[in-house]
Amino acid sequence: MIPAATLFPILPPSATGLARMAAEASHVADGHNIEFRALEVRSLLNKTTSKRRLSLPYSINPYRGCEFACRYCYARYTHEFLGPAYRDPALFEQLIFLKENAAWLLEQELRRHDPADEIALGTATDPYQPIERTARITRSLLEVFARRSGLRLGIVTKSRLIERDIDLLTEIHRRNTLVLHLTITTPDAALARILEPRAPRPDLRFRAVRRLRAAGLTAGILCSPLLPGITDTPQAIDAMAARAAEAGASFFAAEPLFLKPCSRPTFVSFIREHFPQLSAEYECRFAVDAFAAPAYQDELRGLVQQACRRHGLAPRSTDALLTRDAGPVRKPSAACQAPAQQTLFA
After folding, report:
1. Which of 37, 54, 61, 306 has most Cβ atoms within 10 angstroms of its Cβ?
2. What is the mean pLDDT of residues 143-162?
3. What pTM value is reported for the model?
4. Pairing of strands 152-157, 177-183
């Protein structure tokens, strides 16, 4: 366990806003190399602005920080908003804040919310990371949504824990537009273990898609990010699309890797350790820009569209977190039967 003094250096008396809230956050629990703290927040619905040209009006992240520790995570920079003491990218996965009174805040904010404005749950941190099993913040938010009508809600996660909430998701789906997204970066369990160290195994995520579809919910697969030289080959994309179709996914989407400055050191270290032969290529690709070259993006887009056509999957023509363009409603296939329960982690 990391000493609290390391995670929470004493802030200057002048600290205000998020920095002071973080400094005053109360200890909740400890995990493996993780500390959890309760964070007082004034708002839950966040107006979205993005250099990635996302068109999401609003997002909700029940947690600040994420246990899954994905090596490519673009959200590590968000801890920097807490002040200079939190600029170490590793703190994003070692120091997790639980947002207090989230359901009450959502109730208040939805009173002023335009139902036409879409809401994405889990854009920066996974709403079903392991602490959710006991904290149940995400479930409390779903209880709020289940009492509303006419909303447009998208949820994205890497966790099969979403299956726990099928009862609420079904109720939300009945009176609102709801689209669920399971991120499965690779079907290779060994690669997934080093790429997304604390996320559930890929096979468990595929099973979650099957269960969600068996419940009549709109649920698809995000194969993102596509990693150059590792998961971006035509064969790899086609294989993932085939697995998505087998799971009965409503749609299939994949986007290329982009590396924000906060993500680059962690990801480059990952490449040097596990794929040293690709180090020079990655240094070149992301030397001056966090985004992949336009020609490469077009090439991948074409491969994804071909794979979708080949396997009868709906592609996503806009940002995959939106409720629009999720494709026509597909009935779950006969193969989408809920298998026996298994443990969350291998």
Report:
1. 61
2. 97
3. 0.85
4. parallel
